[in-house]
Design goal:
The complex is a heterodimer of chains A (about 100) and B (about 240). With about 100 residues, chain A is of the alpha+beta class. Helices cover about 25% and strands about 35% of the residues of chain A. In chain A, strand 3 and strand 4 form a beta hairpin. The longest helix of chain A has 13 residues. The two termini of chain A are about 35 Å apart. Chain B has a single domain, classed as Thiol Ester Dehydrase, Chain A, CATH 3.10.129. Chain B has a six-stranded antiparallel β-sheet. In chain B, helix 1 packs antiparallel against helix 5. Chain B is globular. The chains are: A alpha+beta (about 100), B alpha+beta (about 240). The interface between A and B is large, with 69 and 77 residues. Strand 2 of chain A pairs antiparallel with strand 9 of chain B.
Chain lengths: ~100, ~240
C-alpha cells in the first residue's frame, strides 16, 4: 500500500545475489509495518565458501564477510495490508480447527 | 512522459508486482535525468503510495520536476492506466479515462561510493544474515518460490539464519538470486519505451538507452520480502478482520 526506499550508495556491484532482512514490529487492524534491508551479496548462491586468510580464525573469517563482503544497498519501510491469500490461509486453518463451519 | 508495457510475467497472481512497478518508475526517473541532462543520476530516496492494482498491459509514467537544488532534484512520478481496458490503443480522452495507480516522489542526487573496508562509518555494520551465500547447499534448488509469483522461474532463494531482534519484532531473512534469462533482462530494462508524443524525444535516444539501470532493481528486492504476518508461526496468524 505504501513503500519508501532509501538508496545507500552508488550501485556498482556485479552481483545477482541479494540478501533480504525484513522485520515487522506490529500487526493490527489488517495492517502491518515492514522494514526491509537489501544487501548486495558477496558471492553467488552455493558458489564457494569464503576462504580464510592465513592465520585467520574461523570467527574472524565470518566477521570479515559480514562486515566487508556484504554491502547494504537499500533500506525500505512499508505498510502492507493483510494479503487475501493470507486471509484465505487463516480461514482454511480455522476450518481445519473446527473454529468455523461451512454453511 | 513514458509509455510502458507492464509485463504479465512480473505479476503476483493477476496483478503487477509492486516492486517491479517501482523498477519501472525508477528506470523512468534515470532515463528522464539523462534526457534532460541533469547532474543528478542516482536515486537517493523514494516514497510511493499504491492506490489500486496495476494490471498487465499499457501504462504511462508521468514525471514532473518539483525542485532542483545543487544537491537534489525532486521529482513527482505518477503511473497511470486506462479503464476499463488497459490495452486500448486509442486514448481519445486521457483526462477522463486515466486512473492514477501509483503516486511517488523521488530524490535524485549524486551518491557517494560505498565506504571502503576499514574506514570508520555507520553504514558498514555486519550483515544480519548469518550464512555466507557461497556456502549454502543449493543442490535441492533452494527453498520453494511460491507459484503465485509468475516470475518464480526467474529466481531462486534460500531462507537462512539471521540476527534475531531482541525487541519482540518478527524477522525473516533470505538470500535471493536472479537466474538470468529473458525475464530478468526484462526486469532490469523495465520494458520502457519513450512516448512519441513528447518533445523530449528529440534529445538523444541513445543517451537514454545507455542509462545504467542496476539501481532500478533495488526496489524489486525490497518488495519481494515476506509479509510480516507470514513470519508468524502457524495458528498465530491473524484472521480476517
Amino acid at each position: 500500500m505504501s513503500l519508501s526506499l532509501d538508496f545507500k550508495s552508488k550501485f556498482r556491484y556485479g552481483t545477482r545475489t541479494f540478501g533480504l532482512y525484513s522485520t515487522t514490529k506490529t500487526i493490527h487492524d489488517g495492517r502491518h509495518d515492514l522494514t526491509v534491508e537489501v544487501w548486495a551479496g558477496p558471492a553467488d548462491l552455493g558458489a564457494r565458501k569464503p576462504e580464510a586468510r592465513e592465520g585467520e580464525l574461523d570467527e574472524d573469517r565470518v566477521a570479515r564477510w559480514r562486515r566487508e563482503g556484504a554491502r547494504l544497498v537499500g533500506v525500505s519501510t512499508q505498510v502492507r495490508l493483510l494479503s487475501l491469500s493470507l486471509i484465505l490461509d487463516s480461514l482454511r486453518h480455522a476450518l481445519r480447527q473446527g473454529l468455523l463451519t461451512r454453511s | 512522459m513514458f509509455d510502458v508495457d507492464v509485463s504479465p510475467t512480473w505479476c503476483v497472481g493477476s496483478v503487477a508486482h509492486g516492486g517491479y512497478l517501482l523498477c519501472i518508475t525508477t528506470d523512468a526517473v534515470l532515463r528522464h535525468q539523462a534526457l534532460v541532462g541533469s547532474a543528478h543520476h542516482d536515486p537517493a530516496h523514494l516514497t510511493s503510495q499504491f492506490f489500486s492494482a496495476t494490471v498487465p498491459g499499457k501504462a504511462q509514467v508521468e514525471i514532473q520536476v518539483v525542485s532542483t537544488t545543487k544537491r537534489w532534484t525532486r521529482l513527482d512520478v505518477d503511473l497511470y492506466q486506462w479503464s476499463p481496458d488497459a490495452n486500448t490503443s486509442t486514448f481519445t480522452s486521457p483526462d477522463n479515462q486515466r486512473i492514477l495507480r501509483i503516486r511517488s516522489h523521488y530524490l535524485v542526487t549524486t551518491l557517494p561510493e560505498h565506504p571502503e573496508a576499514g574506514v570508520l562509518n555507520y553504514l558498514s555494520r555486519p550483515c544480519p544474515l548469518l550464512e555466507h551465500p557461497g556456502g549454502i547447499q543449493m543442490s535441492d534448488g533452494g527453498d520453494e518460490v511460491p507459484a503465485k509469483l509468475r516470475f518464480h522461474q526467474g529466481l531462486r532463494w534460500k531462507i537462512v539464519d539471521k540476527v534475531e531482534p531482541n525487541d519482540g519484532s518478527l524477522a525473516w531473512a533470505c538470500w535471493i538470486e536472479m537466474k538470468g534469462g529473458e525475464e530478468v533482462d526484462q526486469l532490469s530494462s523495465a520494458s520502457l519505451s519513450l512516448s512519441r508524443s513528447l518533445a523530449l524525444c528529440s534529445l538523444s535516444r541513445a543517451q537514454a538507452d545507455s542509462v545504467p539501470s542496476l539501481a532500478a532493481l533495488v526496489p524489486f528486492f525490497a518488495d519481494v520480502a515476506k509479509n510480516g504476518p507470514e513470519m508468524l508461526p502457524d495458528g498465530l496468524r491473524p484472521g480476517p478482520s
